[in-house]
Design a protein that fits this description.
mainly alpha, 3-stranded antiparallel beta sheet, two-stranded antiparallel ribbon, 10% strand
């Protein structure tokens, strides 16, 4: 699941960021986004269903490289390589999005099996994101301002 936080409107921060070399500016932004992602990761680990703790240990966050429009993606997942349905914790996607249990029957012959049950989704990632979105945004902005100042001092 890719979470979206739009940080815009801070003209002073944007002006200071544009004074830095583009490569260094991207580095500062990615490090700052990682700080916010870690806050959300802790919240997800608190929300995840804890039967064997395997799913909790598998929660990962990743900050993707930005493009020319300065758009960055922060991704939280429980699977491997960004796929919630891959690896040892493939079931994390089924827990998060819900699934069906039981025989499906042969639908080509028109057979409908009434033994199919739907398991309600437990959207633990979305819940955690909504709880900590504001705190993560504040942390990103603060860390970004500190990072810009730190890099400006190095010049």
């Amino acid at each position: 699941m890719v979470a979206s936080i739009t940080i815009s409107g801070d003209k002073q921060l944007e002006k200071k960021l544009s004074t830095l070399e583009p490569k260094i500016g991207r580095k500062v932004v990615r490090k700052s986004l990682r700080v916010g992602a870690k806050i959300i990761q802790k919240a997800i680990k608190a929300e995840v269903p804890k039967r064997s703790r395997t799913l909790e240990k598998a929660v990962k966050v990743r900050v993707a490289k930005g493009n020319r429009k300065r758009t960055y993606a922060v991704m939280a997942t429980t699977g491997e390589r960004g796929n919630m349905f891959a690896g040892k914790t493939f079931y994390g996607g089924f827990v998060h999005f819900g699934h069906k249990v039981g025989k499906r029957g042969n639908q080509a012959r028109g057979a409908v099996d009434t033994r199919v049950k739907s398991v309600e989704p437990n959207a633990f990632i979305k819940r955690a994101y909504e709880k900590k979105k504001q705190q993560a945004t504040v942390a990103v902005l603060k860390d970004m301002a500190d990072g810009i100042e730190r890099e400006a001092m190095k010049k």
